[in-house]
Amino acid sequence: MSPAPLPNGTQIGMSFEMGVDINVGSVAVPVWLPIRRPTAIDPNITPKLADVQTYDDNGADNQDRISESFVLGFGVQANRNLVTGMYLPEFEKLKSYTEPNAIGSLAVAHVRWYDKPAAGVANPNDAYEGFATVGLTRASGNADVGSWSVTLTGKGARTQIANPYAGQVATKPTVTSATPSGAAAGAQVVLTGSQFLTATSILFAAVPAPIKTIVSGSTIVVVVPAGTAGSAAITVVNPIGTSDPLAYTRA
Is 167 inside any structural domain? Predict the structure, then answer.
């Protein structure tokens, strides 16, 4: 049996579409620097489980997720300043957490990682922040580009944050037109506007309308839902927010 077709506007994600930043300021006033020249960014989230098995489970395992731990691994090229010999400032910050005198809180980095697509809108829900200890391993052969393997071991759980990637900023949708006007229940209506690729619902007077086809980020085809004739303002919802209503009169 063939899998269900993907909706229009869907694109496969690439393994390199992720970013990592390190805070070189304070927790209260963060100054985020991106880790440049990274490779193989690999967040690993492990659930922390508690046994809640009872007789009702008839001997089967039964565990609840009560928290989590995280490890963030990646590689980074060992770029250096030819005059000073220093590595890039963001890597120097990472390295500072591994020095012999980096004990206790002096060894804890403040980091964030997030979806960073080469094209299209960044996933607003795929971005996290946390505190971690830093491990470094020189990871090159004799004739290879100098690089380091970085392991960030979380202290506590992650925090989900708004995606900070500004290259492709996601916003709430806008709806500028709906054609034809005066359509009845069951008829198709073409909406034009913006930020439709991530649309989760279309509403006619607060009644959900089935999405027929997402043609592009600016065009979507919907089916008018059941309802009474007259005013039925149209709104589009995506993960960022809800569009301003577009006046519409249905048959």
Answer: no
Residues of the domain holding 88: 18-51+67-160
User: Could you report the per-residue pLDDT of 164-219, keeping only the tens digit for each?
Assistant: 887 755 678 999 999 999 999 999 999 999 888 778 899 999 999 998 888 877 88
Residues whose CB is less than 8 angstroms from the CB of residue 66 and which lie 6 or more positions away in sequence, other chains included: 48, 49, 50
Does one domain contain both 77 and 121? yes
Claim to verify: residue 127 and residue 227 sit in the same structural domain:
no
Q: Both 152 and 191 in a single domain?
A: no
What is the C-alpha separation between 145 and 28, in angstroms, rounded?
Answer: 37
Does 147 lie in the same domain as 196? Answer: no
For residues 113 and 235, state if they share a domain.
no
Residue 61 lies in a domain: no
**What residues have CB less than 8 Å from 175, skipping those under 6 apart?**
191, 192, 193, 234, 235, 236, 243, 244, 245, 246
Instruction: Specify the number of domains making up the chain.
Output: 2
pLDDT in tens, 89-112: 999 999 999 999 999 999 999 999
